[in-house]
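ingest -> fold -> write
write: protein_1
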Amino acid sequence: MDLAEARRQFPLVTEAGLQNLTRIREHALAPRWTHAIGDHVTAEDLQAVDAFRRELAAARPAPRRGPPEDLVERVAQLRERVPLWLERIPQGFAIGRDWAFLPTTRREDLAA
C-alpha cells in the first residue's frame, strides 16, 4: 500500500506511520483480517475533539480542598463499629487532618 492509498483509509497517516502499520500488519504473529478499515479521522475531527476537551476542562468544577466533611463524620462514627476499620485506623488517628493517609480497601480485602 502506498501513502496515497493509505490516506484514503487513514487521512492523517505519515510515511513513518504507514511503515509502522505495514510492519505490524505483516508481522508473523499478526492476526489475519478479512477486511481492513481505517479510522478516517481528519484534521477537522481532531480540532473538534480538542475543542470538546477544552470545553470539558472549562466546565470541570474546581478541585475540593481537604476531605469531604460528611465522610469524615461518617467514618468517625463508624470506626468503632466496623471491625476492619478498628483494625486499620489506629486510635488517635485524626481522620479529618490525616484524611490522605486513611487506609483504603485493598484487592485482598475484596477477594476475601
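write: protein_2
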Amino acid sequence: MSQDYAAFRRLDRAPEDVFELVSDIERYPDFIKYITALRVRNKQVDGDVMRCEAEARIRYKFITERFTTAVETDARALSIEVGLISGPFSALANHWRFHRLSDGSTLVDFWIRAAFRNPILQGFFDANRMRAVRSLMGQFEKAAQARYAPVGGEASALDEEIQALIEKLERD
C-alpha cells in the first residue's frame, strides 16, 4: 500500500538556484549518498521544459536496487515531476515545487508516494520513511549551500509567511 508524504523546508538560497540543483539529476551521485549510479536517457528540451528518463542504482545498507523514472522539469513554473517507469516499486511518484519567499529565499515543497512490491522492503521503508526524506532533503540543502550564495534573512522572521504558504499549499 502506498503512502503519501509531504515535507516543507526553507532554504536560504534563491528558488532558481534550488530548482537548478534538483533539476541537475546527472550530478545526484556526487552528493546523494544512496545513489551509486545514474544514467539519463531520451532527454528532450522544449523551451523551459525538459523531459527525460533517469535510471538510478541505489544502495542502502544491505539493499541494492535499480529503478527508472520519467522526469519533467519546468524552469518557468519552478517545478519537477517524477513518475515510475520500472523498478522494485508498485508505486512511485514525487514532485518538487520551489516557492519564493518575501526575502528572496525558497520554501521547498516536496511530496512523494512510494510503495515497494516486496513486503520486506516495504516494511523497511515504512519504518524509515521520515528519516529517509529528512536525509534526502538535508543532502540537497548541503549541496545548495556549497554551490550557491545565500539570500534572505533570519528564518524566524518568515514564520508567519511560511506557515500561511504551507496552509495554502496543503489546501490546494
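write: annotation protein_2
The chain has a mean pLDDT of 91.
Residues 119-147 form the longest helix (29 residues).
pipeline exit 0
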